[in-house]
Design brief:
By secondary structure, the protein is mostly helical. About 60% of the residues lie in helices and about 5% in strands.
Length: about 300
């Protein structure tokens, strides 16, 4: 095993932790009962177990502080529809309920505004914006949608978008002979194989995400590279299969190996075809995307 592969395989695993710290932010997941006519300020009581679980897992795994945790929970509430379009968000009330400072609230709302989820106007205040204004390519919004009521649509849309991005990236990457990147692609395949044998899903997923990120970088197209965050977000979304990459098995490892081999040999059509085969596992996607080309 290469030095890089050994390092990834023996790296310490982060512990599964929930939210903790001043104010115990996750005590208030901003959930409301279904069917409530939302007029006036939002109701902050009544915890939704699923939303709280997702918030604890996401924020805990990323090691976010109070600011990041508040962004996470408010973002999830907006994307899930618990804070509907044009709802007012009162900073003072948010600060009280989450036991955080006005500075934390203000900075969190700025982040959400940059993502298109809220807008702040003089004499109007901060309000939730409609879906049409959201930056749907933002990795956080991709994740939040994947855990909310729109989870099925989000996974289907991600799969369709990956069908557009990755086969093209594989074709372009075959024309770029960067030995260092080719070596790292091979390392990632090796790591995936060892992780599969050891039942180490975390290492498998990390190597998988690295493989796809490297491939897009190798394509040499800056606009495609700018979209690599979408692929990473798709691979990190859990709760159901999106592509074959979410199913650690020998077939998936073999398909990644074939992509790497085609890239190393400069066979663009083979690289594109192998990538399409890797992505062809979702029945709904197969109905809307073309079948792999015959070369």
């Amino acid at each position: 095993m290469s030095t890089l592969a050994h390092t990834m395989m023996t790296a310490a695993r982060p512990s599964e932790t929930g939210l903790a710290g001043p104010g115990e932010l996750d005590r208030y997941p901003y959930a409301e009962s279904p069917g409530v006519d939302r007029v006036g300020p939002p109701s902050w009581e009544g915890a939704d177990a699923e939303l709280g679980r997702v918030a604890r897992r996401a924020a805990g795994s990323r090691g976010r502080g109070l600011h990041g945790q508040l962004v996470q929970q408010l973002g999830q509430m907006i994307v899930s529809g618990d804070l509907g379009a044009d709802r007012p968000l009162v900073p003072e009330e948010i600060g009280q309920r989450f036991e955080v400072s006005r500075t934390v609230v203000r900075e969190s709302l700025r982040v959400l505004e940059a993502k298109g989820l809220v807008s702040a106007r003089p004499n109007v205040g901060t309000r939730v914006r409609p879906v049409s204004d959201w930056n749907l390519l933002d990795p956080d919004i991709i994740e939040w949608r994947a855990f909310g009521p729109q989870r099925d649509d989000q996974r289907r849309e991600l799969s369709e978008l990956r069908w557009t991005i990755e086969p093209l990236a594989a074709r372009l990457a075959a024309g770029h002979g960067r030995d260092d990147v080719q070596q790292r692609l091979g390392d990632m395949v090796e790591i995936m194989g060892h992780a599969l044998a050891q039942g180490d899903g975390l290492t498998f997923s990390r190597a998988d995400a690295e493989f796809h990120s490297l491939l897009i970088q190798l394509a040499g197209n800056r606009m495609l590279e700018h979209l690599s965050g979408i692929v990473s977000a798709a691979l990190q979304v859990s709760g159901g299969p999106v592509t074959g990459c979410d199913r650690p098995n020998e077939t998936s490892v073999g398909q990644h190996a074939r992509i790497a081999e085609a890239l190393a040999s400069g066979d663009a059509p083979a690289a594109e075809s192998a990538m399409r085969q890797l992505l062809t596992v979702h029945p709904e996607v197969e109905r809307v995307v073309p079948a792999p080309r015959e070369h």
